[in-house]
């Protein structure tokens, strides 16, 4: 296989040769003349990178679920973020808006972008995404410059106006002291001869990417930010010689690109001032007595809300706050998206266990319930479903609650609650409790969550609320799901039976509403609408007596409107009827499934039915290793005698 290695290496080297560029400053000027874009500043570079993969608009007309969430707002999706981030369209839009304004060299380009949100809401991941995106992108810098400075800085002040006009680009900023010294000593100020080259952004090599971790408050050495003077060289050179400078601070490294401040408000104010000066003035102090250094970097800071509130409450910090663009990164509040988060994390990990259907969903429901603010419009489980774009049926009607209004009355929603990491730990714990089967299911995950909540030091009332979600709300929710799953496994060709019930009901209801007779689909007989058949379905969702008339009319009105739009109609189209039909099917097998599942011993016929159900469950995605456990749980908790 060595030849393969050889080819790969050669190809790589050839590719690099082609993509790297080396030349003199004079050559560079020609390049700029041909392509002004190469002189763009950091914010613009990041904005272009984000936009380079394109955007698309969510088609709300195509997707009724989303339409309920956004009403008529247009929702733009940025492909750059779309694959890794879920349910944060609003945050991402704000983020991109910042980069857009900053790319126009407006005030935003002189402000810090600050992400605030609860733990595990994705702040670090967002910044990582931007940093990783930069890797592989190249930019032109002065060869050998410790800060990869923009070559245009070589142009002497008195010539800049003219050059700027000739090149058609603004020229701002100055050489760092080290390069300025070299220009004088090494090149005798023949600036056009200075070598220029392309560099690639690199996180590991700290090229164009700087990171400032929260620093020990007792040891706030500014060298982390701006570098230092190399003591070993102090003897070699005279005082004031820039060759002693070690420009390796995060703000030096991040020149041309990005500097990330992690848990920014854990730092002393002095640090923050350096950060602010770097963005506001685009200047940082050089270590020792070497004046100021120009920097062009996009500063992104993040922290949690508690730290931010503490910082805000101190009015001496006003000046800093005025120079910050805040973007909230709340938790996702949509069930479907929350499930995607864990699937993504699981995909990226070494987690190989089988996951039973609805496991991640139940865990995600818990996360979202914990984040919801109560409302007097509905209970929390209903709110969760509405946020998920679902229709919630009550007394035969879909609840008419406006999701956007719900969101508006809970401005701070998503800034509190259970974090993504907590849920991931619960999934891990559920697995280690069940190593042999190498499988997790809703029951074990809920158990693990209960255990973790009990052990965690939440405030007493929070703990109580969380346990109630787990032991009451989600317990009931899961049992409902489970019964439906078992019914599906039990009823031979569930889908077809549901459809045929649906069609029958429509036939009868239409005849009833229009006061006509109708032809039976199978026999062709002319029939009167069958009241008792319709009632047997309606009573499943508590529609009885005079309410039936209204319900039938609504169903038919719905049916006609769908037909007019020439859309396809299935038993799932009209939520109240769907629920009624599913419940009817459930009721029709409830007795058998109860007896068979609960039986300690089964006769031949029962065994056959039981085995067929197990088989069907497995076909529906249940890992064989946990079907038994789940059915036992059903036997003990569903169909209480
Ligand atoms: N909305 C989301 N979409 C996709 N992934 C998410 C989302 N929210 C959180 N995650 C994932 O959750 C994990 C934790 O996120 P991350 O470390 O970025 O959080 P953080 O906000 O920086 O937390 P902390 O304040 O504790 O540093 C990551 O794997 C991240 O990708
Ligand atoms: Mg983080």
CA(first)-CA(last) distance: 68 Å
- Could you list the spans in which at least 5 consecutive residues all have pLDDT below 50? none
Number of strands: 20
Q: What bound compounds does this protein have?
A: adenosine-5'-triphosphate, magnesium ion
Largest sheet features: 5 strands, parallel
- Sum up the overall morphology in one term: elongated
Strand and helix map with partners:
Elements: H1 2-19, E1 22-24, H2 25-34, H3 42-52, E2 55-57, H4 64-70, E3 76-78, H5 79-82, H6 89-103, E4 112-116, H7 123-134, E5 138-142, H8 157-167, H9 177-185, E6 195-200, E7 209-212, H10 223-226, E8 228-229, H11 231-234, E9 245-246, H12 250-253, E10 258-261, H13 269-280, E11 283-285, E12 292-294, E13 298-303, H14 305-313, H15 318-321, E14 324-328, H16 335-348, E15 354-355, H17 359-371, H18 380-387, E16 393-394, E17 397-398, H19 403-408, H20 420-432, E18 439-440, H21 442-455, H22 460-490, H23 494-514, E19 518-519, E20 526-527, H24 531-538, H25 547-564, H26 575-598, H27 604-619, H28 624-637
Parallel strand pairs: 4-13, 4-14, 7-10, 10-13, 15-18
Antiparallel strand pairs: 1-6, 2-3, 5-6, 8-9, 11-12, 16-17, 19-20
